Amino acid sequence: DGFHWHRPDRTAFISASRQEGTWNRGYVQSVGGVCAVVGDRLWFYHIGFQGDSSMKESNWLKNGMYSKGSTGLASLRRDGFVSMAANAQGGSLTTRPVTFEGGHLFVNVDCAKGELRVEMLDVNGQPIEPFTLQNCIPVAVDSTLHRVQWRGDPGLSSHRGKPVRFRFYLKSGDFYSFWVSPDLSGASHGYVGAGGPGFPGGKDTVGKAGYAPAATALRAFC
């Protein structure tokens, strides 16, 4: 959610090159806010230093360690830090018991050549009608914001505040994240790092409405 983190893999996310003559030879770090959310991408502004090996003073204020600094920009799929991947045979993922305050399930998934289906279960693992696997309309998209629907779906709002589990069935794709939104915009109300085009504050309260300003910003940037 941009605030709570669990990172079992400590490999450098944006690493220094450690090669003399490159702009990001050493001391690579992110700027304030970590990242900006720009539509369906995350932008990471970061600094790096080429250094100057000809400056050999022992005092770090006078040597070349921090010479020739530059700013770089890296980008990543929104929520794209890690995914659960499935091949053509498929697989499933069942959440721990969760509660929510919204009424519409959204996913970030890349399964344009496969499919994702979802069912909602009670804490004992029993499907809750009509949110069953059989009623789920298969999702076959590459999208960072897509609503999951069931046939005869009245919305999830009647289950607000009640512990449930979601079970996701995926074939030929990558599943990045899910959330329950209070409205059809898909607004997650999660933190958005340094913000971005279309966000009025530090949380995503706009959902799909934030994608159009991001597209305008990208055209201006390019």
Computed over alpha carbons, the radius of gyration is 22 Å
Q: Count of DSSP E strands?
A: 11
Helical run tally: 1
Shape: elongated
Q: Structural class, from secondary structure content?
A: mainly beta
Characterization of the model:
The protein is built from 1 helix and 11 strands. With 222 residues, the protein is mainly beta. The mean pLDDT is 92. A hairpin with a 2-residue loop joins β2 and β3.
Features:
222 residues, mainly beta, 4-stranded antiparallel beta sheet, 1 helix, 11 strands, 5% helix, elongated
Sequence-ordered SSE layout with sheet pairings:
Elements: E1 26-30, E2 36-38, E3 41-49, E4 69-77, E5 84-86, E6 91-94, E7 104-110, E8 115-121, E9 142-147, E10 165-171, E11 173-181, H1 211-221
Antiparallel strand pairs: 1-3, 2-3, 3-4, 5-11, 6-10, 7-9, 7-11, 8-10
